[in-house]
Specification:
The protein is an all-alpha fold. Helices cover 66% and strands 0% of the residues. The protein is globular, with a radius of gyration of 18 Å.
Length: 184
Amino acid sequence: MHIDKFRLLNAIGLILVSAVLCNAFYGQFVGGDLPCPLCLLQRVALVAVLYGLLLNVVYGAKPLHYSLILISAFLGAAIAMRQVLLHIIPGTPPYGAPFLGYHYYTWSFVVFSLVILGTGVISAFSIQYSKGSYVSFKYQQWFCKLAIGIALLVTLGNALSAFIECGLSECPENPVSYKLLSPP
C-alpha cells in the first residue's frame, strides 16, 4: 500500500492539535481553571482546525480543506489576541494559571500562528491535490486511525465539557462552577 505523505502529515497535525486541546483539559480538570467564553471560542476554533485536518486525512488534501483550517486558525488567533489584549491592561488580572510561564490564551495565539504558518507551507505543494481520494476508516493506516479516533474523542469531550459548564444558556464571564453539576 502506498503511503500518502500528505495524509500522514495531516494526521500528525490532528494529533498535535488534539494534544493542545488535551492540555487545556488538563488545566481545566486538574488545575481547576474553568474555560471562560473566550477560551471556549478558542477551543471551537481548534476543533474547526481539527475538522479541516480530518477532511484531508479522510478525503485527501484539497485546497478547500486547507482554507477551512486557515480561516479557523485566523479566527482563533483573533480571539486569542483579544484575550491577550484584555489581560495586558494595567490592573487587569490574568485569567487562569500560567503554563510554562504563559497563560493558555497566549499559548493559543502561538498555536494558531503556527497552524497558519504550517498550513501555508504544506498547502503550497500542489502534487498532493492530484491524488487525493476518499479512504474509509477501515482502510486508513493505523496512525491515521489513531489520529482520527483521538480527534473525535477530544471533540466530543469539549462539547460535553462546554455543555456541563454552561448548559443551554450563555456561559458566565468568569465561571467558578459547572452549571449542570451545581445545586440550583
